Every structure is written in C-alpha cells, then in structure tokens.
C-alpha cells in the first residue's frame, strides 16, 4: 500500500541560492512511521530532480490522509 507525504526541503547546492526552498508531495511504496528515518524521502526527491542526495535537506514531512 502506498503512502503520500507533504514535504518541505532545501537544496544546499550553490546553484539554488536564489530559490532553494521547495515543497511538494512524495509517494512511497509503503508507509513510514513518524519517527523513522527520512532517507527514503530524500532519495526520491533527489532522484526526481536529478540531484545528489547530499544536497537535499529535508525540513519537514507529514503523511497525507
């Protein structure tokens, strides 16, 4: 069962200094617990924007119902 999450994240790469804060919805194949590791969300964001994972800093995330 998939789960959708509302995310806010910052890109720390110098190329994004003028507009580096973003928000959007990420869909995972299975739900995460609120206190679990957020690496899956970061990996999806990085892959979707064709970026390295280390420049994506997740600010907040919450599951959409």
Explain this structure to me?
- The chain has one helix at residues 39-48; strands at 3-11, 21-28, 56-63.
- It is an alpha+beta fold.
- It has a 3-stranded antiparallel β-sheet with strand order 2-1-3, covered by helices on one side.
- The mean pLDDT is 84.
What's the structural blueprint in terms of helices and strands?
Layout: E1 3-11, E2 21-28, H1 39-48, E3 56-63
Antiparallel strand pairs: 1-2, 1-3
Structure summarized in a few sentences:
The chain is 15% helix and 38% strand.
Distance between the termini: 13 Å
CATH architecture descriptor text: Roll
Strand % is 35-45%
- What is the overall shape? elongated
Mean pLDDT: 84
CA-based gyration radius: 12 Å
Provide key terms for this protein.
three-stranded antiparallel β-sheet, about 60 residues, Ubiquitin-like (UB roll), alpha+beta
């Amino acid at each position: 069962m998939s789960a959708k999450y509302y995310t806010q994240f910052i890109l720390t790469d110098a190329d994004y200094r003028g507009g580096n804060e973003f928000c959007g919805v990420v869909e995972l194949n299975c739900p995460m617990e609120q206190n679990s590791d957020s690496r899956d969300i970061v990996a999806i964001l990085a892959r979707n924007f064709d970026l390295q994972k280390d420049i994506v800093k997740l600010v907040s995330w919450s599951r959409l119902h």
